[in-house]
Structures are given as C-alpha cells and as structure tokens.
C-alpha cells in the first residue's frame, strides 16, 4: 500500500492583546519551503520587537535559501537558530539601548510526512490529531522545569509569581541550545505554534474545541485570538496553524 503524500496549508494571526501598548511577537512562514516560525520578544523600549523580528527574518532567510548538498532539514534549521541567536546578540552588543534583549522561538519545518519542531523558551507547538491535543514542546521556563522535577505542581506553577521567568532565549548569550522533536505527520493533523499570550489565557480543552471546528484555518486563528482576549488578553497573542492534508 502506497504511503499518502502529505501537503500543507497554513494561516496565522497576531494581536497585541488588551493590556500591552505594543506587539513584541513576530511570525513568518513559507508553505513552499515547509517553514513556520513564531517568536516572542523581550526587552525594554522597542527591543523586544527588534529581537523577535530579527530572529524571524534570520530563520526564514536561512531556511528558504538553497540548501547545501548533504545538509538535512533539521541540520539546516539548527544552523538557522544559531544565526538568529547571533544576529540578536550582535545587535544588542552594538547598541546599549538594546542591551539584554532576546526572544523565544518555536519553529516547525516539514518535508513531506517528516516534520521537526524546534524551540527555545516558552513559545509552544501543539499537535491536534483525531480529537486529541498534544503539547509537543517543553517550556524552557523556571516553573515548568520545577514541575518536571516534581518540585512544584501544575496548579502551583500557574499561580507562581516566577511563571514569566524563562531559562533559555535567543540573543541573550553568545550561544544557545535548542530542543528538536521529530514527528511523522498524517493527513488531518493540525499543528499550532503560539506565543504564551495564547496558552496563558486558554485551557487545552478550549484550544482543542476551537481547533476541531469545521471552519477555515483563518477562522480558527481568529477564534483563538478572540477567546484569548476575552479571557484577559494580558499579553501579545500569536498563533500559526499548519494543517496536513492528503
């Protein structure tokens, strides 16, 4: 029996939310090249916006360029993350006003049925399959690492005043380590890349119910943003939805 060819469609939306004066999130994607990225910047003044935009631009530039022979897609994605980290770090070093800026990053790169999810920080990737929502990434945050070590419960983590502290970010150090998860996509899978402005406001049950709606990806993005804003909208909100089809 022949393996079904998988194709992808995508939609994305970002919103500054109800509390923040600016939007420090950034996203970009290229269905043609199988690349989808979300970044959530941090830093004073406009530094967060600069960091996230720089990182997204570098990721797309590297991942849509002609690939060197013998370099796999996940290897190329890893090099792109290093380049993005260096771009943000160098810009911050050259301008004192931007000192300490950084950004989270979550990316999906896909090649037919094979897909890789890469992340730094607490922006996340989820996969919706057969009515079940699964978180693919692991947050690089202080409270989530405490939860994984059994030192804090999930409910304690949600209430912790340290829940905004991330333990890894692009651009804050000369070198950065990313996680990489390899997956096999099936027709019907929906991947969601998002900033924490979405997941801080919405439960997995609410996210799953919206992703299951029989409407376009654009409409699902709209509904996720609206729901997150209604729930408080305390931070910038970004989501990129990627659907695998036969």
Mind sketching the topology for me?
Elements: E1 7-15, E2 25-30, E3 35-42, H1 47-63, H2 73-94, E4 102-111, E5 114-120, E6 124-129, E7 132-135, H3 142-148, H4 154-159, E8 179-184, E9 190-194, H5 196-199, H6 204-211, H7 217-230, E10 237-245
* Radius of gyration, CA atoms, in whole angstroms: 17 Å
Across the major sheet, the strand order is 1-10-9-6-7
Largest sheet, described in full? Answer: 5 strands, antiparallel
Please identify the top-level CATH class: Alpha Beta
* The CATH superfamily title: PPM-type phosphatase domain
The percent range for helix content is 25-40%
End-to-end CA span = 15 Å
Order of helices and strands: EEEHHEEEEHHEEHHHE
- What is the number of helical segments per DSSP (H or I, 4+ residues)? 7
Unreliable stretches, pLDDT < 50, 5 or more residues? none
What structural category characterises the helix and strand content? alpha+beta
Number of strands: 10
Strand content: 25-35%
- Write down the domain tally: 1
